[in-house]
Amino acid sequence: MKKKISLILSFLLLLSLAVPAAAMENDEPFDIMVIVTPEVLRYDADVQPDGASHGDFSIEILIPSLEKYKSCRVNVNFNTDILEFEYAAKEPVAVYTDNCQATENGVSFYVAWNDEYADRADGWNYSTLCSGRVTGTGDANFSVTAAVQDVDGNSVNAKIKFVHGCDTVMNRDALDFVELEDTLYPTWPLYFDCGTTVGEVLSHVKTQSAQIMAIEGTVLSDSDIVPNGARIVTKYEDYIVDECLICVPYDVDCNGKITAADARLALRAAAKLEELIPICQYAANSDGAAGITAAEARLILRKSAKLA
User: Fold this and answer.
1) Helix (H), strand (E) at residue 154
2) Per-residue pLDDT, 193
């Protein structure tokens, strides 16, 4: 009987390859995602060891399938004089970049495909690229431009999607931050089993003002089931101040349930027919090894059928 069930599961997985998977909801398609975190920059009024009073911020770039392009030049401009370029933190995964260069109005950096990483499994390049510092309070809006070329050197119109663009800077002591119980190890992301409620997660958070938001930005109630990609956040007015990302294993489509649809997405990713965003990759990747395999997709299907 077990062998028969196993054969049926395997057949269903193979059949699912021919069925287009529903795309993750996005505001619009994008080629380049520039992330500045958080929405509210923190200005630390306390004097730092170097004698300066400041807070820090970072700029991250996320590019799907950079191998389609030859190069990418991204400029991040500040419309304020209270932000300063500080240094380049590290190079991104699987690509070449030069250090962030200070410009008159912000920073600029260059990213290019490196053939040495042509067999990279996840199809994404992502890493913190630039760090900077906040030297006072006030408005802190950013604008971003990108000059992209394809492998033949032709210009490409790059669509840019902002995540957590900064609008304002507040004194740190006026803001709340996500503080977890000592028993909850501060990994990134935080892992919770499927079926965990918002109330159960928040019971491990010391910060009274913390909320949990789904991946599309909806604030969840205590009785809601926490979906993959949700975030524990604190806010200042309508701005996000601090956050912790949550991963729910096997919930690949981020709907709070483990179903055959999750297995189908994982299998399509394993067959290179679907490109998953990082948090979905984490949910599908049960063995911790690089890449998603058909065996992991089969495990998800067994989980959905309550056979594992």
Assistant:
1) none
2) 95
